[in-house]
Design a protein that fits this description.
244 residues, Endonuclease III, domain 1, mainly alpha, 13 helices, Endonuclease Iii, domain 2, globular
Length: 244
């Protein structure tokens, strides 16, 4: 007799992934007495201004590279006492390039970091106040800055601002299309609209779900999927096709 196939909703999928992988603790930030960004599973305390800036800068530096490379660059900036808006905005380009070299594309990224810092330092009340503004207007403002696309803007809003902006990355697009939530050619906004329509509007929930999707993609839902042991296998077209 055929085994009944489970159809995963985004909420059910996130619950199953949390049960398997546990809290992920995104976005990693440097603790008060630490020297490198660290994940904080299950911790949702208020970020300091320096930690908010770390998230913003990290979102720019992790573009087109692994987080480990971006994390080393963030650590260099912290070690050099440069993780301040005024210092990043005024820092000579060659020095900033040297500090963030590990992140790759360091010349382009130095320009992005300086553009962001120059814009943000003029905001009254600091990053916390600025990022608490009207969400749609703030998103458009971020998108107008040099080097900030949709994924980076939403990462800043969600992880630095604590705003309910679901981050859609290549992993999210891949997982959602395999589960039948949206087509493989769906746009960022189409995938985001689907997910936010199916999940309660919660920054904590969005952050945890996004991080769990990344973990699933790393362990199982790769370009060539490794379906054995995947917690969502029973509701996935690829998983069903790979069942023995």
């Amino acid at each position: 007799m055929p085994v009944a196939t489970k159809v995963w909703t985004p909420a059910a999928a996130c619950t199953a992934l949390l049960a398997r992988f546990g809290p992920q603790g995104w976005w990693p930030v440097t603790p008060a007495r630490g020297s490198a960004p660290a994940y904080r599973p299950g911790v949702w305390d208020e970020l300091t201004e320096a930690q908010r800036l770390e998230v913003c800068v990290g979102a720019l530096l992790t573009q087109n590279t692994a987080w480990t490379n971006a994390s080393r660059a963030v650590s260099r900036l912290v070690e050099e006492g440069a993780m301040r808006l005024d210092r990043l905005a005024s820092m000579p380009g060659p020095r900033l390039e040297r500090l963030i070299r590990s992140s790759g594309y360091f010349r382009q990224k130095a320009l992005k970091v300086k553009a962001f810092a120059s814009h943000a330092r003029g905001k009254r009340g600091g990053l916390r106040a600025w990022l608490s503004g009207p969400l749609s207007e703030l998103r458009e403002e971020l998108l107008s800055l040099h080097g900030i696309g949709q994924e980076t803007a939403d990462s800043i809003l969600l992880y630095a601002g604590g705003r309910a902006a679901f981050v859609v990355d290549a992993y999210t697009l891949r997982i959602g299309s395999r589960l039948g939530w949206y087509g493989p050619g769906s746009s960022y906004r189409e995938a985001q609209a689907f997910l936010v329509s199916k999940l309660p509007s919660s920054a904590r929930l969005y952050a945890e779900c996004h991080a769990l999707f990344v973990e699933l993609a790393k362990q199982h839902c790769r370009k060539t999927p490794s379906c054995e042991g995947c917690p969502l296998r029973r509701g996935c077209r690829h998983g069903r096709g790979n069942e023995g």
